[in-house]
Amino acid sequence: MKRVWKLSDAAQSELLSRHRSSAAGSKTLQHPHYAFTLTNSPSYRLTRDVNAQTHSSSAAPSSSSPLISMSSIIDLFRDKPLPQDMRAREDLARTASELRDELVQNIGDSEKIVRVLEEKGCSSLWEWKYGMGVVELLNQLRSWPQLALEVFEWRRQQVASSTSMSAEEYAKAIIIAGKAKNVELALELFTEAINKQIKTTSIYNALMSAYMFNGHTAKCQSLFRDLKKEPDCYPTIVTYNILISVFGRLMLVDHMEATVRGLKDLGLSPNLSTYNHLIAGYVTAWMWNSMEKTFQKMKEGPVSPDISTHLLMLRGYAHSGNLAKMEETYELVKHHVDDKEIPLIRTMICAYCKSSVTDRVEKIHKLMKLIPENEYRPWLNVNLIKVYAQEDCLEAMEKSINEAFEHKTAVHTAGVMRCIISSYFRCNEVDRLESFVKRAEFARWRTCRSLYHCQMVMYAAQNRLKEMENVLIQMENLNMPCTKKTFVILYRAYLMCGQRCKVAQVLGSMWKHGYEMPFDSLLS
């Protein structure tokens, strides 16, 4: 009754204020007792501020003033966070952050973690209604899923001596278990919540998310069908977003698009997550035109792109080789990518590796500086070796080769090996090539005749026939018999150096193996 009286009191104040503004020149009130009551009302100052804004916006009353008055009254019924609520939430986040930091310092020591929770957890977080304190702590521990699950397990054990757990706590724990690849625990928590009659849509959504993260798409869709049969629960836009993500991961684009189209019939409006999952599905399926159309629709429609959208578009542009738009998008989210999106930086580097832009090495170097040294990836290192070899950046190429040897990364692709050989050949570095070949043999990299043929040609060009012949011995030790190309290299090397006797021996060996004689040998 007290709240109803306050709202009624505020409404009377608003109407009285309108009466004042409509009475030109009048200085006396017809109902002076209202003035005394309203000025002492808690809502008086709020109403007075609304009136002041209204009078400042228009000097004369308009015909729509009753509508404006009603809208001002309706605003009083809206559920707005009070300043004290905002301060309480900030205090909760700060308290959870302090507790998180202390828990993270004791990762791996279960006894200390329990001690910290017993000393600081109960008094500061468990007293919040609906488990909001626990949910906030679990949310801040999302980067340490195993630790978060330890905290929740301790919370489960404390339920007997405190308030029961809420649906929000169960839902958050189920999602964390899914991200920790512990689907069995996620299902166990879901079953426990259902048995305790904590049956909400958020619980179903959480288990669907856990199945989605771990690739159990059939179970995810089966759970969705179970949710639709529940009389007290019904799918929400979050539920359908999970389905869209599942279809996108499976590249079932038709199902994904049909789900989005069906939202309108269900009375649901696509939100930001809907569009982001849709774009992610198109990126997975490499449907670049559909990806771009969806992004443009977001820019033109009521749902604007957020940073996650731009990150998805950046990945899509990188995979599609659209370097111009990739660089444009990167400038928009550079501050975030440089600090938190190392995998995306690798994707951009890979895009430059596949391109043919003239300054790709400089751009790759700038991005490589953003990757910590302990973030080594074999596939990226091999790509860098290939790019540096193609650009004849010998120092950078050998640095990447040394990193590969240090991390025991073996190259098994003939194309990469040929790029390395060609780079040494163009730079006329036969001694470096010889050193690389020996190390590659020891590390069990892909070996092919091109390696040794290139050495032979380079030694012959420098009139170093002894080293050239040693290469033949290496080939024999590796069970690489001479081919026609090997004999042709020997023939031209000896001919160029004036070794007529050895030229005749090579021609004899070619005739013995059934190979055709070089044309110029028939003329001599």
From TrEMBL:
**What stretches of residues are PPR repeats?**
236-270, 271-305
Q: Which domain of life is it from?
A: Eukaryota
Q: Which PROSITE patterns match?
A: PPR
Question: What keywords would UniProt list here?
Answer: Repeat
Pfam family example for this protein? Answer: PPR
Q: Which family does it belong to?
A: Belongs to the PPR family. P subfamily.
| NCBIfam families tied to this protein | PPR
What's this protein's name? Answer: Pentatricopeptide repeat-containing protein
